[in-house]
Amino acid sequence: MSARDRDAEAVRLHVVTGKGGTGKTTVAASLALALAAGGGTVLLVEVEGRQGIARLFGTRPLPYEERPIADAPGGGRVCALAADAESALLEYLEMFYGMRRAGQLLTRFGAVDFATTVAPGMRDVLLTGKATEAVRRRASERRRGGRDAGGGRHVYDAVVMDAPPTGRIAQFLNVNAEVAGLARVGPVHNHADKAMSTLRSAQTAVHFVTVLEEMPAQETVDGIAEIHAAGLNVGSVIVNMVHSGFFDEPVLREAAEGSVDTGALVRGLKAAGLEDAEETAHGLAQEMSEHAQRASAEAAIRARLDEVDRPRMELPLLGGGVGPEELHLLAERLREQGL
């Protein structure tokens, strides 16, 4: 077994990021279903407050509460949580100080919102802290004070975080740097240290979602470099919404150069009994040429992604939108590619 294989087996926190429009939330949900297949229990955490997970699974908006959202093949289960900084702070105060009522008063007077606005790093500390606590939590854990009583299996076999976009992911995950100006000692500092210990360990991998377009691919390459520089672990590159190939490589190469046998198309269309064969053939030749040019550009982007030397998986473009059935299909594609 290679070192990479051993690392993959050790990963329990899967952070999913990507440029807006690449289907990051769809991939995170599919990844959670894939990890739960075979009897696992997986927590899917949303941190941006968009309720994208609820829409994908066709459920009511998610509260700040871990609850089952979908079954996976083989008896697995996916739970979901919509994390927000205010609720995370109230839970933090209750766990460590028994001060939930005081925290509610702070919320009523706007103190919590004020604090996370003035010190935005605090928001990231609370959100990452919630996800990493779920990774560490064991069935026998005493929640008060966040202490692990020892023994017992992990509550979740894996945690998947639908994280902020690529342009902000390194800053979001580097909570030690964020908290440095907030507290150098004390509970907040210790809370951030615990989160950072999990984030920097082999238990965590940051997966990048992209599509075969110039800007998302470049952001992926830049984001991977930033994650490496921050001392965090890069997982896989997941190329989403990949178009199906209709022609062999030699045909595509000729079509990209404008060499489409329009006469053969006309003859074929006439043999099929279609009217306006010549006009239709010219239209098809134009579409074929454009398809071939796009395929050539996508091949160049794939070559660029090869340079980052990380495992790569691809998911197909699905027509008609994505819902629970499509999520299971995408999860199966991820499993087929050795997730």
TrEMBL record:
GO terms assigned for molecular function: ATP binding; ATP hydrolysis activity
Domain ArsA/GET3 Anion-transporting ATPase-like positions: 13-178
Q: Which portions of this protein are annotated as coiled-coil regions? A: none
- Source organism, top-level taxon: Bacteria
**PANTHER family, sorted:** ARSENICAL PUMP-DRIVING ATPASE ARSENITE-TRANSLOCATING ATPASE (PTHR10803), ATPASE RV3679-RELATED (PTHR10803:SF31)
Name the record gives this protein = ATPase
